[in-house]
Amino acid sequence: MPSASTVRVVNAATRLERVRYAIRDMAVLAEQLTREGKTILPLNIGDPLNFDFQTPPHLIAAVEKAMRDGKNGYSPSLGIPEAIEAIRAEGERKGICNIQSVFLTSGVSEGLDVCLTALVNSGENVLTPSPEYPLYSAVLAKLGAESNSYRLDEENGWEPDLEDIARKLNAGTRAIIVGNPNNPTGAVYSRATLERIADFARRNNLVIFADEIYDKLILDGEPHVSLAALAPDVPVVTFNGLSKSYLAPGWRVGWGIVSGDAAAVKPYLEGIHQLLRARLCSNQPQQYAVRPALEGPQDHLGPVRAKLCARRDLTVRACRSTPRLSCVSPRGAFYAFPKLDIPDSDEHFVKRLLVEKHVLMVHGTGFGQAPGTKHVRIVFLPDEATLSSAYEGLRSFIAEHYA
Predict the structure, then answer these.
(1) What is the CATH number of the domain that holds 352?
(2) How far apart are alpha carbons 313 and 329 in whole angstroms?
(3) Does 271 lie in the same domain as 150?
(4) pTM for the full model?
(5) pLDDT tens for each residue of the chain, 403 residues long
(6) Which of the listed residues 295, 317, 348 is the one where a domain comes to its end?
């Protein structure tokens, strides 16, 4: 047995120094408090099944049948034919044409990872929103590429700042990531904004990564506009899945639709398919829920949106009636991103709020917010009684420390 002085420490790769995931990091402190007997009010992770939402029964039945029928081995690398056909048809219903490929992945997270890996070389950059979903920058850091942040304008409903995008473009820019509806802000982008982004991509030879996982969770009744439908000539990878709208995040069923000019995307598409073959396939039994989800009953969506609208409205009222908080009303998904007017950092704020009031939120710095700003992300999935208790704790915390 070697002595402590002779043990050689195995260090992690230095590229991980830039990888952060504040959503899960805050949960570590919450777990410690839970072990101490504290009851935590969780407004941190966007998992509907932690609250009063349930996976539609016909999707569960489809997966159970697939398992009983022996669909428990490897599937084709791109996915089972019936799921691919259903996703293609869904894309066409949304107006996406020039579809060159459809593939299934273990959630949108894997899909984005694969598609960035197939595109970006070390030292190149991708336009990412600020604030952003932190996976985007984490994958780029792993690849040795740069996250080239463009501003989302809080004064304009968190729409992308088109002038800032134009300023940030450079010779090393390969792609732009657009989350619509947006996490963490809950913004839903206008058709005019999406058309301008498509034009930037067209004129600068960019690939668009359109993260549209919340497309069926628009809270004010407006139709969702798929970016790829506005730009049939531009290379676009549209991501979606069963996690959010179909309330099955643990199944890890995501997909990508690659559209654009066939000759332009051919070499890139070959790279994506190469990586998908190397990782074998995504979960086969759960893929059998895709067709029932997209083509079967959609009855669950009305009640889901009704709950989210009521909880969104409660959240916005609470934020706007609390000193030192202001909030743009979310129009989609189930997140709010209120601004803090405090002297402390937002990370210090959320940690102290958790320890003293047992209310769990995530600090805006964990989402790459604009420098000099302070925010928190609120997940308004819990029932209204839980949200009311959490917002009362938030209000009293601010009164005690920032009167």
Answers:
(1) 3.90.1150.10
(2) 8
(3) yes
(4) 0.93
(5) 555 567 888 888 877 776 666 666 777 888 888 899 999 999 998 999 999 999 999 999 999 999 999 999 999 999 999 999 999 999 999 999 999 999 999 999 999 999 999 999 999 999 999 999 999 999 999 999 999 999 999 999 999 999 999 999 999 999 999 999 999 999 999 999 999 999 999 999 999 999 999 999 999 888 899 999 999 999 999 999 999 999 999 999 999 999 999 999 999 999 999 999 999 999 999 999 999 999 999 999 999 999 999 999 999 999 999 999 999 999 999 999 999 999 999 999 999 999 999 999 999 999 999 999 999 999 999 999 999 999 999 999 999 999 8
(6) 295
Give the helix/strand (H/E) hosting 266. helix 262-278
The number of beta carbons lying within 10 Å of the beta carbon of residue 192 is 10
**Looking at the structure, do residues 203 and 313 belong to the same domain, yes or no?**
no
**Count of domains in the chain?**
2
Q: How far apart are alpha carbons 361 and 393 in whole angstroms?
A: 12
Let me know: does 172 contact 123? Beta carbons within 8 Å: yes
Q: Is the peptide bond before 181 cis (omega within 30 degrees of 0)?
A: yes
How far is residue 359's CA from residue 393's CA, in Å, rounded to a whole number? 7
**Which string of DSSP letters, residue by residue, matches 34-56?**
HHTTPPPEE-S---GGGTT----
Which structural domain range is residue 287 located in?
Answer: 58-295
SS3 state at 212: coil
Q: Is 345 helix (H, G, I), strand (E, B) or coil?
A: coil
325-326 vs 339-340, strand pairing mode: antiparallel
218, β-bridge pairs: 332
Rounded Cα–Cα distance for residues 371 and 391 (Å): 26
Shared-domain flag, residues 236 and 357? no
Length of the chain equals: 403
Closest CA to 316 of 372, 308, 216, 347: 308
| Pair of tokens at residue 127 | 């336009």
Q: Is residue 149 in some structural domain?
A: yes
